[in-house]
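FORM 7B: Structural annotation worksheet

SECTION A. Query
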Amino acid sequence: MKDETKTLIVTFVLLLLLVIFFKNVVHKPINVVPLYLIPIFLWIGYVTGRVGAKLWMGMTLFLTLAMAILYAFF
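SECTION B. Predicted structure
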């Protein structure tokens, strides 16, 4: 499987998990638009910059989790 396909799958999985997390776990309204755009922006950065799939996946996962935790508690 090509790295572009892997990164696109990770992007969609992270978006789906964010929606499930906020709707079913935290029970907060889904009005945090920048949070949902993080994986998409990082995917665009990967496609344009070609930094490497493993580095991109780790960075995207870390930033998405950090932002989810930040928005869940505040």
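SECTION C. Observations
The chain has one domain: 3-73. The chain has a mean pLDDT of 77.

SECTION D. Sign-off
Analyst initials: ____
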